[in-house]
Amino acid sequence: MRREVNWCSKCKRKLGLIGFRYRCGKMFCSNHRYSDRHECRFDYKAAGRAMIAKENPVVKPARILKV
After folding, report:
1. Is 22 a residue whose pLDDT tops 90?
2. Local confidence band at 1 (pLDDT 50, 70, 90 cut-offs)
3. Per-residue three-class SS string for 10-65
4. What gap in Å lies between CA 10 and CA 20, rounded to an integer?
5. H/E element, 7
6. CA atoms of 60 and 67, how far apart (whole Å)
7. pLDDT surpasses 80 at 49
């Protein structure tokens, strides 16, 4: 049984057991695992906003009937 061989998306180096999957979905070696090293265009602000919106739903007060 053969295992799948992974390659670094930046330098095309063969990855052994340790490959780092980044938020953009690509695999990187230990040299290119940080976003500033592989010129990633992942939008942290949009991801943070989506996470906050998902975890904190809008709370609306109950309507009060005026007499």
Report:
1. no
2. low
3. CCCCEECCCCEECCCCCEECCCCCCCCCCCCCCCHHHHHHHHHHHHCCCCCCCCCC
4. 12
5. strand 6-7
6. 21
7. yes
Q: CA torsion sign, 54 to 48 to 31 to 28?
A: positive
d(Cα 65, Cα 42) in Å, to the nearest integer?
48
Q: What is the homologous superfamily of the domain 6-55 according to CATH?
A: AN1-like Zinc finger (4.10.1110.10)
Q: Is 2 a residue whose pLDDT tops 70?
A: no
Which pLDDT value is given to residue 55?
93
- The domain limits of the chain are 6-55
Check: pTM over 0.70? Answer yes or no.
no
- The C-alpha angle with vertex 17 and arms to 14 and 22, in degrees rounded to 5, equals 75
